[in-house]
Amino acid sequence: MQQVTIAGRTIGRDHRPYVIAELSANHNGSLERAMDIMRAAKKAGADALKLQSYRADTITIDHDGPDFRVKGGLWDGARLYDLYEQAAMPWDWHQPLFELGRELGIAVFSSPFDHTAVDMLEQLGAPAYKIASLELIDIPLIEYVARTGKPMIMSTGASELGEIAEAVAAARKAGCRELILLKCTSGYPTPPTESNLRTIPHLAEMFDCVVGLSDHTMGTAVPVAATALGSAVVEKHFTLARADGGVDSAFSLEPAELGQMIEAVNVAWDALGAVHYGPTASEAGIRPLRRSLYVVKDVKAGEKIGPEHVRSIRPGKGLAPKHLPEVIGRIAARDLARGTAVDWTMFAAN
Question: Where is the AFP-like domain (predicted)?
Answer without folding.
Answer: 292-350
